[in-house]
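Contributing new records

If you add data, match the layout below exactly. Sequence lines come first and carry their own label; structure lines follow with theirs. Keep one chain per record. Anything else will be rejected by the validation script.
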Amino acid sequence: MLYQPDRSQYPDMGPDGKLDIDLSSGKYLKLWQGPQHPGITGNMSLELTVCGDEVVEGKVHVGYLHRGFEKLMERRSFIQCFPIVCRICVPEPDFNEYCYAAAVEELAGIEISERAKWIRTLILEMGRINSYMMYLGGQAGALGMGVIGQWTTYVRDLMLDRFEELTGARIYHMFIIPGGVRDDLPAGFEDRMEETLKEIEATLKDVQEVMFQNAVFKKRTKGIGYIDPSLVDSYGITGPNARAAGIAKDVRADQPYLVYPHLDFEPVTGKDSDIFTRSDVRRRDVIMSVDLVRQILSRMPKKDGPLMAKLPNVLHWKIPRGETYIRGECSRGEYGFYVVTDGSGYPRRVNVRGPSYTHAMSLLQRMIVNVNIADVASLMVSLHTYPPEIER
């Protein structure tokens, strides 16, 4: 089960399970964990109440980094919303581009070309690799293994090189737009991508040996941060956090989209549901994404038409009344956009369902109880959250 306070240890706990915390008594102390930026948890911070070196209560504060996107989009035309959405998740911006573009296309009755679907899938898997590389470096860094972060940042930069030659940008690519994608693969892209994938595979072998075979890393992550599989559905836990508990939740397999039905893969799972297992599931997920990128590049059909569907004048684009929900599997779990239109030139309502909300708020605040303060950082990182998905 998730950590819960021991009533015998804290006699001043009421029948509702809440402590009567009197900071003036000297028994309890309030500390702040974070914020740090950049990082996996970014500007998120925890307001901790500790008794000795043990946490008895934790409150999440997500800060004011990138925020208010949903309301901003209600006051922007459909094409003006496009450069906004990628800011909702900086390390993996392309998924917001895909969800928003797919929602607009469904509401407007736009069909994109087959090759555009393959390129979109390629972009999403490239972004997944980048996100996981940042995660692995962050998880190692939370336990003092800074060299791992240097290795993963190096290969992440190599993938950003591929993004730059494909999209013209390294961070915010704005490549997946309503109607398709902005351009085709440049000449020689496949060969350069293969070189990058080989570097990633070599780095993952080093990470496996230095990080996952490290006795200290094992001791500080195995058996810590356990999530009971029975709570996965009730807490809305998705992605690697659910798969590490043995529950194969993966939208790519459960409700395939884009060209995932044409690709061969099985969701990566674990069984111990602790920090170590969540980290290992993500490491193995990178290996699977490397294989998926190779499959995409080898099976992608030749260009036989435009990569962009014909759109109306986007400055005066009005979309018929309707609503839709588009979802997919990002590096942190199920990600979705709920978009409502009223026939005007602006979205009536946009709601973003990012996995960080449930993982970083309700789940973390329950898990943090009875954790040693030395393990708080690794526990936070193990849930892999991006605060702008919460304060959106």
